[in-house]
Structure formats: structure tokens, C-alpha cells
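User: Please predict structures.

Assistant: First:
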Amino acid sequence: MERKDHMDLFGAAALIAFALHLAFNQVVIKVTGGGFGPVFQAGLRSAGAVLVLYLWMHMRGVSFSVPRNAWLGGIASGLFFTFEFLCLFSALDITTVSRASVIFYSMPVWLSLIAHVFFPGERLTPLKITGLLLAMTGVAVALADRSGGDVSWAGDLLALTSAFCWAAIVICVRITPLSEVPPAQQLMFQVLISAPILLLLAPFLGPLLRDVAPIHIVGLLFQIVAIASLGFLAWFWLMTIYPASSVASFSFLSPVFSVILGWLLLSEDVAPSVWGALVLVASGIYLINRKPRKT
């Protein structure tokens, strides 16, 4: 498809579907954790994604060679990717999908703050500052709520750390020559580096296997194919067609869908304060990514 300068119906539908897809994945991670240890699950996901991505690149004739000046950025993004999912999978193992998602999807907040410092063209505007304050208030509300049996300070802090790592990956790509490398190669760096590290760490962080059932294996395969490899490639593809700011503006839907799916599919008891935090975070993300109107 040719490059577009505005969002059309197809793009909007695709991005809404992708946000729902990512939200459903949070539920899948939580359910799959019943059969695999969280870090072992993350390692298996990355290892499987390496194979799927290799086959896809081979079939499409995508080169595996990467310029030497992009290696440092690639390795750094891979290490951030490793720590991001070590923290996220561990968080989802000890807290609810709704809490972890509200905190994890606050990533645009921290990205905007970092971009304000490092990128002169992305200074904070009054609209973005309003969005930041709303989203940060939402995160504070979520952290302050200690009601419910699955509330854990460790889980909250792990989800927040994973959001920081996600923002660091974006910055890493932006400020290094890795930005000139095709998306498939960027993703290969991340899964190829994370897979062995996570699998080596897994035995030291709890049992590898729990009560494995077919649903857990299906959940793992879903993550490998539909998220960690082809899913992310689809998102990168949308980024090559539509303006990045327009694509980013749909990110506020992911935490909304995650909380709703956790409530519907896992019967999670979502406290009123968490619903309030969700509204604040989602509204803040929307304002952060909203393009200012031309005068």
C-alpha cells in the first residue's frame, strides 16, 4: 500500500483491532502462566519468535545482514526488550491484568518526558502537559489502591519498570543507526538476544513447568505467532503507511481493552479506583498523542 498522510477507515479499523489484539494477549499471558513459569514462558516465546521471524524473512527475501554501526543499538534494544518482558510476565503472574495493564500502558507518558529532553522537535506543549498530568495521576491512583487479593507492590513496580524499558527501546531506536534498519531486523535483534538470556535465567526464578495443559500450549503458540513475530511486523507495516502520530494516538485503547477483557474473561474484581485510573491514563495518552489543530 502507498504511504498516506492521514488516517483512513482501513487504518483506523486495523489499529483498533491491533489494540484489542494486544489487550487479549495480556489475558493469554496470565492464563498461560498456569502451565509455565513466567520467565520461562517469556523465553520460550522469544525463542519461537526467532524461528517464525527467520522463516518469514527467508520467504520474503529480507536480508539478515545489519550494518556494523547499528549493532550497538540493536544489542541495547535487545537487552531492554529482555528486561521489559521479564518484568511484565512476572508482574502478570502476581497481579491482575487490569492493574498491570493500566501501569504498563503508561509508556507514552515516560516516552514523552524523555523525548522532551533528547529531541528538540518534540517539546512538551500545554496539551501534552495536560495529558502527562492526567496519565501520571492515573498511575498514582492505581498504585495507591491496595484493595483486592491480587494486589502486590512487586507486581506494580515490575509493570512500571517494563513500561520504562519499552520507552527506552523506542528512544534507543531513535538515537542510534538502528533507526535505518528494516523493522524485521530490529525485531530479530530483540527476540534473538532475549531468548537465551530469559531461558538461562528462568531456572533461577522459579519452577519452569507448572500444571501444563493443552490450553497453556495453545496460549504459548498464540504469543509466538500472533504477537512476538507476525503481530509486531503487522504493526511496523502500519507505521510505514500511516503517520506515526496517528498510529500512536490509538495506543490509549490498549489499556481500556485490557481492563475490560480481564474483567470479562478472568472475572477480575476491578476496584472503582482502578476504573478511574484507567480513564485518567487513557485520556492522558490520547492527549499526548493528539496532533495540535492547525490555525
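Second:
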Amino acid sequence: MRYRMLGDVRVSAVGLGTMPLSIEGRPNEARAVATVHAALDAGVTLLDTADSYHPPDGAPGEGEHLVARALASYGGGTDGVLVATKGGRGRTADGGWTVDGRPGHLRRAAEGSARRLGGDAIGLYQLHKPDPAVPYADSLGAVRELLDAGTVRLAGISNVDTGQILLAREILGDRLVSVQNRYSPAVRDSEAELRLCAELGLAFLPWSPLGGISRSSLDGVSALEEDPEFGAFHRVARERGVSPQRVALAWLLARSGTVLPIPGASRPETVRDSAGAADLRLGAAELAELDGVGRPAARR
């Protein structure tokens, strides 16, 4: 496993997104915990969750509870594991997603997340999505208060543009350490945000990093048939004797030294395969070919 920096914390170059373990279609408890344990066995030290990762009929924080139980039952050491969670989104009864960036809500949400995860403070707390009904500076101000209070150690933002990144840096200072946007072979509209993160020294966490190769948990968990548009990833995978998913993650890692992919997984085999991307070094010709694949898509 290779490692990279997230703020002042050294974390695995490939993390684990726990959304598929927590929302509709999730595996049973035993397999979910086994998946987290397999990630830890493979050297993964960055686990990403959110208080909104639960089925429509569930309760906020179910995903956080799962991560806490998996860490508590792990037979090895977990002192080096950074748990990142998010606040500011919710679920509707029909399976939809809401946004709530009100400062009071964010303070209560973070305090609830801290209780569920345990420990002295949330390792990384990420503002899940800007709320169009609330000035973004007000939401960021709530995150700053959580940092000042010690509820949160490090802060991140998600689903943002360059202007919002700069505003967050102004309000949070060097306690802002990460940006989490959708970015994958199929969705590359965050190129400007990726470049800005590299300039500012912020970690860039691509969510749904396997778009074009595998489905997102937001779209369904079944694997896609090979798409001719992304055939280069499959061809390189066949030549290398690895999965196209591993190639996609290795490509992401090569995009910038600030990138920390957080692919989802619902089986131990899947997370072990993803973790292997940290040690897959693609050649210049391969990277040039893969860079030319895909097309931009609108931010969701």
C-alpha cells in the first residue's frame, strides 16, 4: 500500500467508501463488517461514511454505527485509521436525498456523528453539499465552530466549485484539508477543482471513482457490461492481468499526488482488488491513452 497526506494525517492512497454497505441493497451485517475488515487487512486506513448513509426507512447514522462496530471488532490495530464522515444531507421516504446546510442542523448532526463514531473528535468532517437555501459562508461558519469546539479535528467540503473551495479556505484556513467531488473515467467536470486542490495542497477525494467502469451505489450496484467508450481501460486491464476497476483507480492516482480515491465495495474480494490499485503503476503511453477516454458530464 502506498500512502499520501490528508492534512497532517498519513492515509492509504486508496480508501474505502462505505455507502454500499449502508444504503438500500446493502449486504448483511456479517458481510459488511467482513468487507471493512478486508480493507483494513489490505492496508486501507481511510474510511468514508456519512450520517445520511442509511436506507429510506432507516435512521440517520446507520452507516456510522456500522463503521464503529467494524472497527471495534477488528482483531488488529486501528490507531492509524482515519474515519471521515459527512453532514448536511438526508433521505426521504421514497429514497431521495435532501440538503440541509443550516448552521444549527450541522452542529446537531456533527454532535450526533461524534457520539456514534466514538473517540475524542471526528477525524474528518465534510460538509456534504452546499444548500442553495443557505449562504455557503453560514454553513462553513458552523464547521469552523465545530473545529473550534474540538468536535471536529479536520474539515472537508464536497460537491463544490472552485469559488466555494476558495471561500472555504478563507473561512476555515489550513484546517480545510480536503475536497470530495464526483470524478471518474466517465465524469471529469471537476478538472478545475482538481487543479486548484493541487495548488492549495488539499486532498481530492473522488466519489463514485469507477463511473464508466462500474455503477455507482446511487445508480445500482450491479456491474456494467464493457462499454466501448471505455474500452481502453478494459484493454489495459487485460494486458496487465488485472481488473478494469483497478486500472481506473491507478489512473486516478496518477492524475495528481493529491488524489485519494474512495471506491465503494460490498464484498471483501472487491475491496482487496481496489486496494491493489495503490501498487499498480501505469506507463506514460497507457496514461496518455486513458486520459483521452470519456466525456465531461454535469455535476450532480
